Amino acid sequence: YVPGAITVNPAPLTVAAVNGTKVYGTADPALAFTASGFKNGQTAAIFTGAQTRAAGANVGNYAITQGTLSAGGNYTITYTPGVFAITPA
Asked: What is the spatial distance between Cα 16 and Cα 18, in angstroms, rounded to a whole number?
């Protein structure tokens, strides 16, 4: 008998930022995302960290990026960024 090895690779996980908006001068709402591809009954509860948005407080559009959002070593994330819009007061 010659023993072998089994390699377990991370599963793909698709994450997409949900576009956000706020009115100039108000507080930023929480950034949201959608995710699909979980395995073994796992849910979005496995995520740690957070998305970030480009700095700025003036009216305009700012990128929402993955930031430190992670699903751990069992997943490889494919991330789709979003847009955060600040509208005039």
From this structure: 6
SS (H, E, C) the chain: CCCCCCCCCCEEEEEEEECEEEECCCCCCCCEEEEECCCCCCCHHHCECCCEECCCCCCEEEEEECCCCECCCCEEEEEECEEEEEECC
CA distance 22 to 4: 56
pTM score > 0.90 for this model?
no
pLDDT digits (tens, 9 = 90+) for 28-80: 999 999 999 999 999 999 999 999 999 999 999 999 999 999 999 999 999 99
The CA distance from 53 to 50, in Å, is 10
